[in-house]
Amino acid sequence: MSSPPDNNNPWQHGSRDGAQTLSAVKLNKRYLLHRLKNFRNPFIIFLGLATLLGFWSAYYTVPSDSVAVIQRFGKYLETVPSGLHFKIPLGIDTVTILPVKRQLKQEFGFSTPGSTDPYQSPVDGLRETEMVTGDLNAALVEWVVQYRISDPLQFLFQVREPRAILRYVSESVMREVVGDRTVDEVITIGRQEIESEALIRMQALSTKYSMGISIDQVQLKNINPPGPVQASFNEVNQAQQEKEKLINEARRDYNKVIPLAEGEKDQRIREADGYYIKRINEANGDAARFNALLAEYLKAPAVTRRRIYLETLQDVLPGIQNKIIVDDQIPGILPLLNLSTYQKSITP
C-alpha cells in the first residue's frame, strides 16, 4: 500500500526535475549529432585532400647530374645529392635543384631553337654583337660561353641572378678584348688569342664576384664586318687568302727543292773529299814505292832493271790478245813464237 505523496519531501520534487533535465540533454545530443553528421563529410574530404597533397609534396627526386639545396623557412639547411629524398611539405621546406655536373652555355648574337634556359639566348642579339676594334673599325662578333655551377651556395645566395650577371660580364670582357686588337686580328689570325684571354678574364671576374660559376670555354663563332662593307671586306679577305696560298705553295716548292739540292751538294762534297784522300794516298804510296825501288836500284842496277822489266811485262801481257815474240838470236826460217796459239792449246 503506497503512501500518499509528501509535498514537503525535497527528493521527490528533484526526481521529477532530473527526469525532465535528462530528457532535454538527450534531445540536445540528438540535435548536435544530426548537425555534426551533416557537417562531417565535407570536413573529412578536405582533411583527406590536404593529407594527400602534403604527402605528394613531401618527396622529391634529384637527377643524377644535379644536387638539391634545402631551405627551411628561407634559411639554408643542407645540400643533398642525387636520388629520392623527403622534406617537410606545405612550404616549410623549399628545394632548389641545380645541375652542377651539366655543362651550361650562353649564346651571344644568335640563339639555338628549343633552348629552355631563359638566360641562354640573347634578348637583343644585334646590340650584343656590335663592337668597335682597336683601329676604330666595326665588327659583328658572335660567341658562346660554356660554364658549370661550381659552388651551389654562392650561386644561390651570394649574388642575385648570377646567370644574368654572367651575361653582363661576358659582354663587357669581350668588348674589352676586341677593343685591344685590329679588325684583321679579330676576323682572321687573332681568334684563338681572343678566346684564351676572354676566358681568363671572365673566370677572374666570376671568382671576384663569388658567383659560384666556373668558365669552361669561350668560343668565337661568326665574326663579320657590318653589312654595308661586307662585299669589300670579302674581296680583301679573298685576296689575303690567295696571298697566303701562293706563299704556302712557294714554301712547299722551297722545302721540296732546297733539301734535295742540299743533299746533292753534300754528296758531291763527300765524293770530292773521298777522291782527294784517295789521290793523296795513291800519290804517297807511289812516292814511297818509287823511293824503295830507287834504293834497291842503287844497290843492284842490273838486277833491279831486269826485275822492273819482268814485272812490267807481267802486268802488260795479260791484256794483249795476240802476242808474238821475235828473237833475232834464234837461227831458223821464222824466228818468232806465237804465244796466242800456244796459250789456246794449253788452255783446257
TrEMBL record:
InterPro entries hit by this protein: Band7/mec-2_domain, Band_7, Band_7/SPFH_dom_sf, HflK
CDD domains reported for this sequence: SPFH_HflK
Location relative to the cell: Membrane
Coiled-coil stretches: 229-256
Stretches assigned to the Band domain: 57-237
Membrane topology: Single-pass membrane protein
N-terminal signal peptide: none
Transmembrane segment boundaries: 43-62
Protein role: HflC and HflK could encode or regulate a protease.
SUBUNIT field: HflC and HflK may interact to form a multimeric complex.
UniProt-recorded name of the protein: Protein HflK
Organism: Pokkaliibacter plantistimulans
